[in-house]
Amino acid sequence: MRTTPYALAIVAAVALATTAARRTEAQTPRPVRLTVRLAQDSIPSGSRAPIVRSEHLLGDGRWLSALRSGLPVRLHYTVEVWRSRGGWFDAFARQAEWDVVLRHEPLLDQYTVLTLVGERGQERRYATVDALTAALAFAYQVSVQPAEAGRYYYTASLEISTLSDSDLDELQRFLEGDLGDAAEDDNGVGGAVGRGATRFLLRLAGLPSLRLEVRSLSFQVR
């Protein structure tokens, strides 16, 4: 069977359209996602620690563009412990919060990730966007479990914002005067979160752009 030039043109057009569709699908921004799950039941009381993880933080391009434009991006995480009370309003028990500040250093073409937990700070550097993306997908196991018997659940929230010029100056003064040496690596986030660094970042005006909130499954503490 002989293939006509017209048929070849149709085949080529279909192939191009399919390739373009796949390319468009691959480039479609993926929304930022926040999850909170329960750690394994490993203690007699049945208490479960929350594990918080965010995904696709650089997926839609907005935050990466802000970083490359010289605007640091602040990620503020909060985990709250709630006690279920049946027909009554649920009761708030306690919370933990921490901040992550992302910055781009144009001269070195590197990205820095400053994690602030209470009075402790730790800074890491990443040479590529892929390495930064992988670091931001880190899962935090938060030590904020309930202390009394009952049925509980966690809520986790993430607020993403950029910092203004005045905020940058205050942040720099804070880092030079209050943080000192970076703390040693610690995968767990403390339950009794201090006030210093957290209170400082909460006072920053910033430009709130996105807020996510999720809820965990319930669990029973004996």
Task: Offer a concise description of the structure.
By secondary structure, the chain is an alpha+beta fold.
Structure write-up:
It is a single chain. The strands form 2 sheets. Strands 3, 4, 5, 6, 8, 10 and 11 form a 7-stranded antiparallel sheet that branches. A 4-stranded mixed sheet has the order 1-2-7-9, with no helix packed on it. The protein is elongated and about 55 Å long. The chain is built from 5 helices and 11 strands. It has one domain (29-221). The chain has helices at residues 5-27, 62-68, 129-136, 165-179, 196-202; strands at 33-38, 50-55, 73-83, 91-105, 110-117, 120-126, 139-142, 150-162, 188-189, 207-215, 219-221. Helix content is 27%, strand content 38%. Strand 4 and strand 5 form a beta hairpin. With 222 residues, the chain is of the alpha+beta class.
SSE map:
Layout: H1 5-27, E1 33-38, E2 50-55, H2 62-68, E3 73-83, E4 91-105, E5 110-117, E6 120-126, H3 129-136, E7 139-142, E8 150-162, H4 165-179, E9 188-189, H5 196-202, E10 207-215, E11 219-221
Task: Give the tags.
222 residues, alpha+beta, seven-stranded antiparallel sheet, four-stranded mixed sheet, 5 helices, 38% strand, disordered N terminus
* Helix-strand topology string: HEEHEEEEHEEHEHEE
Structural category: alpha+beta
The average pLDDT value, as a whole number, equals 76
How many strands, which pairing sense, and closed or not: the largest β-sheet?
A: 7 strands, antiparallel
Shape: elongated
Which spans have pLDDT < 50 for at least 5 consecutive residues? 1-26, 179-208
What's the domain count?
1
Number of strands: 11
